[in-house]
Amino acid sequence: MSLPPSPTVFVVDDDAAIRKAVSRLLRSAGIAVTVFESPREFLAQYDPNTPGCLVLDLAMPGFNGLQLQTVLGERGSILPIIFLSGHGDVSKSVQAMKGGAFDFLTKPVNAKNLLPAIRAAIERGAVARREQAELSEIRARLDTLTPREREVLEHVATGKLNKQVAGDLGITEATVKMHRARVIAKMKVQSVAELARLTERCGIRGTNSLKSAA
What we know:
The protein has a 5-stranded parallel sheet with strand order 2-1-3-4-5, with helices on both faces. The chain has 2 domains: 8-132, Rossmann fold; 144-213, Winged helix-like DNA-binding domain superfamily/Winged helix DNA-binding domain (Arc Repressor Mutant, subunit A), CATH 1.10.10.10. Helix 6 (147-157) packs across helix 8 (173-186), helix 6 (147-157) packs across helix 9 and helix 7 packs across helix 8. Helix 4 links the parallel strand 4 (81-85) and strand 5. By secondary structure, it is α/β, with parallel strands linked by helices. It has helices at 16-28, 39-45, 65-74, 90-98, 111-142, 147-157, 162-169, 173-186, 192-201, 207-213, and strands spanning 8-12, 32-36, 52-57, 81-85, 103-106.
């Protein structure tokens, strides 16, 4: 089994001096770093499976930092972004934070501010990746359920008794018990309460949302 890739800080800035300074700082702190002079260069080479964070210049000619943030968001990226700005543009910083940026620092940035922000962003990214992996596993378990088992899951997870579920679905209570046992086994949980927590994490709160998650 191969080890997961180490966290890497991706620095995207059209200023060569900034790229060099940030790269030198991170390497001296024992942090892997890869630099890019434009968002397009970054997009052409970035592997979404590599954890870490993105240190991104806000104002660049043509394709700027906010546009890259938008593209990454559209692709479902969970890579935390730390914006750097030399202009202190309040409206753009607000836009960046609303877009989900992890932090926003002004140039010239110093090690005292940048390194803690980067370490915190890398940790945030690691947590997000763990959560994403857990959700994928839960959805994979859901995909093993039959249509009837999904119906029973929806009703049981809302706290209904077997008798109530039987009445709602027009089946016997014994059949509900059988499906319920299979659901608990397939979903790899020990209790209905745990089952309810898993389905809630996937956004399943009723027949329509359950079908949409199928």
